[in-house]
Amino acid sequence: MDLAYTEAEEEFRRRLREWLAGALPGLPPKPSPDDWPARRAYDTTWQRMLYDAGYAGLHWPADAGGRGATPTQHLIYLEETEKAGAPYVGANFVGLLHAGPTIAAEGTAEQRARWLPPVLRGEAVWCQGFSEPDAGSDLAALRTRAVRDGDSYVISGAKTWTSHAEVADWCELLVRTDPDAPKHRGISWLAMPMDAPGITVRPLRTLAGSREFAEMFLDEVRVPVRNRVGAENDGWRVTMVTLSFERGTAFVGEVVACRRTLDALADEARRNGRWDDVVLRRRLGRLNAEFRALWRLTQWNVAESERTGGVPGTGGSVFKLRYSGARQELYGAAAEVLGGGDAFDLDREWVLDRLSSLSYTIAAGTSQIQRNIVAERILGLPKGR
Amino acid sequence: MDFQLSDDQRALRSGMRDLLDAVFDRDRLRAAVERGGTLDRALWRGLGAAGFFALRVPEEAGGVGLGLPEAVLLFEEAGRALLPGPLVATHLAAGLVKGAAEGEAVVTAVDGDLPVAHLAEADAVLVGADVLVGEPLRAFVAAARPVRSMDPLTPLHRVAGRTAEIEAYPGAVPYEGALLTAAEQLGSATRTTDMAVQHAGDRQQFGSPIGSFQAVKHLCADMLARTEPARAAVYAAAVTGDPVEIAAAKLLADEAAVRNARDCLQIHGGMGFTWEADVHLHLKRAWLRAAARLGGAAAEELLAAGLGTARPRSGSSAASGGGTPEAGGGG
To answer: What is the 3-state secondary structure (H, E, C) of chain B?
Structure first.
């Protein structure tokens, strides 16, 4: 058990810190959270800066245009960029963390050459067309139909909870290509250009009042067959590859951010006198234990994937289950630190985060789905009906 | 960074597991319960011979010369097997009390105002920085009053007058004791998870194994989701030795041990409420350990004091992450 970073890893950290210190002052001010065109511009500008500095797609394999960094280097990258206050992956989330790694793992040489470099350069933004009004947690129940017509699929259906669909260039889309097959088969993974005729995007407001995601209606949208990644009707397996990426390292930066928030909460409580409340103070102490442990668990999982050399596995479900609950606890404590009046003022720091935290036990697989995964795939309990 | 067990550490752990399987199987566990938790001196000496107590005593002083991470792995196995006795106190006393390192002496300790474990059989008692042996020990025991212990594996005595807060112990000892106790809790939490999963897979109700029901499945999943962060916290604290990190490890391991035992009991249903099932033994020990050596309130206060960007520095040893207050420090 060794928590010390190697000399090479520390050197990587030093260089990254230096570059961040020089690069970040050149960024324009952060746009309003509701202004998606401005957010896209901001996030892709940052992506381009990363690309020019050689940090784009750090954890992608070298033959996909990435740097083939080790899991530990990737961990250091996520830790340092968060500490430096660098932009979060933002509008590039799906491209960099989902669609890109999936295409890198499952796409043909031509598909990789076509779609991966624009993601790394910040030229193409992707969104995720997985969830449907009647198929969220039961993802395999999706109904959006794709019927083959010559060299194209003709697609009709509806998707929902599609983040930043209105500014995306591409959508990683799950469609049903064989309605007669068992529900986990008969699904295909397509790259759909968002400017294709027949796509209607309608932004939705979240309970936090912001426009974070959209519903998307597909009316006989034509997508070339060559845009399919993986074999026809093999999309479920391809999707599982994607989801393992999502649950593996997607939250590393956020754990670092939560630890910073917890320190800020303690500062604020000492300033406004709430620190004297022993119940609240101990609650913050308990959260300190929680986020320290989540950070150590992250290091444990990263070291394990470094040893096995594989993609992140089901261990990510344990992490996601625990982290999503802890994040909600953190912002619940934040409301107590702020106290009555301020806890309801959307202009106060942490109030919007408290609302946003409610999505964490739902998005990327609900906590109930994660528990099923943990129980069946890790503990080996029998499947239910 | 390679935060995984080394090959030597794996071998050490599996060696300890094999040893305990051989010398302290379920029959011996239940025999210990029947004896009211009195110690098996031959077993105690066997542990001593295997290096359990002398593990961290330097080689030049006749010990094994290993460190806290290795000790944590052994105590995790001891917790898994529900091995009785003042294991932590005797381990901490190795090199300090004659015979402790070899398992010839049984050493217990006073911990705040909690009842003292295994006092009647102790050859020495640690009270803060003092070691009581001989006549002072006999006087101390004579003044103590036996308690009808809730935990059948841990005889308890209330002692008059002398209490010792954790701060009274010299140097890093109190925190090491808390960490080793956390390691026992981790082992117990792992074991009750295994027991629950085993039972949920075997036990049939309504024509199916109960583990196929989501309500049971989710209890089991939550047990693992408590154990794994606790494991990461305990192992990391063993590497850094940081008191705040040890407090985190103790808090999470206590929670994992107690709540997992309760969920395991629930999954065993009516059988879980009987004396014959082992789960109550885990729960009772877990409750005792949770109160001992940095209990919940003390751990939370220590963790709270470790928060904030402008927090006061603790003056003691390796406190507060060794000068890296940033997230992810202590690397």
So the answer is: CECCCCHHHHHHHHHHHHHHHHHCCHHHHHHHHHCCCCCCHHHHHHHHHCCCCCCCCCHHHCCCCCCHHHHHHHHHHHHHHCCCCCHHHHHHHECCECCCCCCCCCEEECCECCCEECCCCCCEEEECCEEECHHHHHHHHHCCEEECCCCCCCCEEECCCCCECHHHCCCCHHHHHHHHHHHHHHHHHHHHHHHHHHHHHHCEECCEEHHHCHHHHHHHHHHHHHHHHHHHHHHHHHHHCCHHHHHHHHHHHHHHHHHHHHHHHHHCHHHHCCCCCCHHHHHHHHHHHHHCCCCHHHHHHHHHHCCCCCCCCCCCCCCHHHHCCCCCCCC
